[in-house]
Amino acid sequence: MGVITDHLDLWGDALWGTIVLFLGGGIIALVLGLIVGAARVSPVPIARAVGGVYVNWIRNTPLTLVMFFFAFCLPILLGERVNSLLLAVIALGIYTATYVAEALRAGINTVPVGQAEAARAIGLNFGQVMRYVVLPQATRSVVPPMMSVLIALMKNTTVAAGFSVVNLGTIRAALSERGENALVVLLWVMVIFVVLVLLLSWVQRVLENKWRIAR
Amino acid sequence: MSSVLFDVPGPRAVVRNRLIGALTVLVVLAVLGWVVWRLYATGQFTAEKWNIFTFSAVWVRFGEGLLSTLSAFAAAGVGSIVLGFVLGIGRLSEHAWVREPVRWIIEIMRAVPVLVLMMLLYYGLPVLGIKMPPYFAVVIALIVYNGSVLAEVLRAGIESLPRGQKEAGYAIGLRKTGVMYFILIPQAVRAMMPVIIAQLVVALKDTALGFIITYQELLYVINQIGNQAPYGSPLIPAAIVGGSMYVAVCLLLSYIAYRLQRRAKRSAKAGPAEPDPRQHAGETNTSLIVLQGDGSDLPR
């Protein structure tokens, strides 16, 4: 325990960095993913194509490379220094948004077409169809993949450690300078991540139970 | 075309869709235009920045980097499939003393970030006197993580098979091993092939994490070439060239997964492994109607 209690300041900073990366990246990913996901299921062919290219290209780019572009190339393009935490958050958001978009699209596609057709047949307008028929059913099937995406995001925050952003991935280097045992530090980091992931899985179970209905 | 979200568009919707389409094009052009303008304004298109690419040694270096990435991927891919089978079968064991520890290993290994595993192997183990080159740290970490994920994939594949398959196997006198190897695994692997390939794409992408623990793979080479000050630090040109290589390799593998998925879907329709659409929750009712004919003989 000494590894943690002797250096509470560093552990606090590291955990805070991870949480900021997770929340910031998560918010960008959810907003952007919602837009891209909507584009991918829209009746506009051009929007579908643009969404498809974005999702397929970014998903087939390593996150490390995406972050490399943002951390090293973007400041050159802008011609000025940018906060590295901000760049890492944007990179995480843009990368994760593709997975959010796919989860949303898959969720919408699980709703049988007949459901919406029946809803339109009884005279509901678009907003009502969405609110009373499609979204309640889609939400249920979106929760598990969406939580997997968020769990992956939580684990991906460590990649920012390679680009001088303080988080749980950098604590090994920081504590090595204070002469701590790297193995013990990293084992503690593993424990923290297992706890964080278990926490998110618990949220997933709660949400699933909340929205479960007897069929 | 009709979908869950929209009907066949009428005249007003057609106009609106065209407007949204034009708006999308404008936004995309604006973003692309901004990037090209900034690239031009910061002098990324000048001959000086691209001069370094006229040396064949630079291309050899890129080739070495790509080869390091691919060799780590090959070893990690094969290793994680082997580990996936071992853990997956262990997870399905009838003996609790095998099943439960394996379940915990899988859960923990899936929860730990790959980068932390790599750091543990590369920075942590030397404390115990075990030193390894970064190549092995990358490969072992990828094997452990992707192996655990593949184990869950395989388990899901086997559990999704109809129970009759297993029972029929026992009925014709096969033992536990025979049922597993001749009946369950071949079907589960075929059903899960797209997911397995998709996980291999993840492994390929994650080799780039080796950059952070100084494994000299493609991203490391990009960074190295990009910081050659005598050649004007061509970081962006190097990132464009190397990044295209990465994306090309990953897209190729994803395309294979996509083709396999399509083939699996087609053969599933003709083959005996056809899932009953009435029991399949994800299937829409319309596909059932299609299977039954044009729907004219449905009760009204």
Give a structural overview.
The complex is a heterodimer of chains A (215) and B (300). Chain A is mainly alpha-helical and 215 residues long. Chain A has one domain: MetI-like fold. Chain A has helices spanning 2-5, 8-40, 45-59, 63-78, 84-109, 113-121, 126-156, 171-177, 182-210. The longest helix of chain A is centred in the N-terminal third of the chain and has 33 residues, at 8-40. Chain A is flat, with a radius of gyration of 21 Å. The model of chain A has no long low-confidence stretch (mean pLDDT 89). Chain B is mostly helical and 300 residues long. Chain B has a single domain, classed as Orthogonal Bundle (MetI-like fold), CATH 1.10.3720. Helices cover 72% and strands 0% of the residues of chain B. In chain B, helix 5 runs antiparallel to helix 6. The longest helix of chain B is centred in the first third of the chain and has 36 residues, at 56-91. Chain B: Residues 268-300 are annotated as: Disordered.
Order of helices and strands of chain B: HHHHHHHHHHH
Described by strand count, sense and barrel closure, the largest sheet of chain B is: none
Number of domains of chain B: 1
Helix run count of chain A = 9
Calculate the mean pLDDT score of chain A and round it.
89
What is the total tally of β strands of chain B?
Answer: 0
Transmembrane segments (chain B): 20-40, 70-92, 104-123, 135-158, 179-202, 235-258
Pfam family, one (chain B): BPD_transp_1
Subcellular location (chain B): Cell membrane
Membrane topology (chain B): Multi-pass membrane protein
